[in-house]
Amino acid sequence: MSEFPQGAPTASELSRRSVITMLLAVGAVLLVPARALARACRVAVAADEGPFYPVDPFPETADLLGTSPAPGEILYLLGRVVDRNCTPVPGASVEVWQCDAGGQYNHPRAPKVKALEPQFRYFAKTRVAADGSFTFRTLRPAPYEVSGIKRAPHIHIRVKSSHPTFTTEVYFHAPIDETLRAQDRVFQGRGPNKGEMVVRLEPASRFAARLKGTHEPAALACAYDLTLT
What we know:
This protein is α/β, with parallel strands linked by helices. It folds into 2 domains: about 1-40; about 75-229, Sandwich (Protocatechuate 3,4-Dioxygenase, subunit A), CATH 2.60.130. The chain has helices at about 10-40, 175-185, 185-190, 210, and strands at about 75-85, 95, 125, 135-140, 145, 150, 155-160, 165-175, 200, 200-205, 220-225, 225-229. Strands 1, 4, 10, 11 and 12 form a 5-stranded mixed β-sheet that branches. It has a 5-stranded mixed β-sheet with strand order 3-2-7-8-9. The radius of gyration is 24 Å and the shape is globular.
């Protein structure tokens, strides 16, 4: 007579179920880094260069502030340039340009809302490290208006490499920015994946290891990885 009640699973059935359960559990664990990897290597959303792409040569520096920062919140923009396989793109050059904390661009066609900040560079470029990483020290840009269009705070980014030149923008996830982006016709026209251009602002201290402890106590930071196709 069987030691199991009638209808109950046999020992061999229990063993098979245990193996299947174990395999499913292992599969679920393996899927976690795969999903994280897919998220980290998402394809960036393309954008045009806008009307204020610098006419002067980009200075070779990752620091737009220097030793005497202009007024505004210090912001570290961190990122990586990789291909669709999450492999670093060697020799990539990253350009950034933006307005200052008062909404002023350094460009001959930009509306003159205020004087330029002599201690702010407004645009710069740097080459990525061996792992594809880059870090810019800059200011959190302000909203501004041009040709009747209200623009939410953003930084322009252009990557030049062995891949086709790629241009995008980075916006910020904060309550005031949410309202401004809703009114920004340019951002709203960036397509269905425009949300990928929005990154969270965090205290720079959360990136202390990557910044090697050189950040200012009140500085902000955001991470914006760029995956080229």
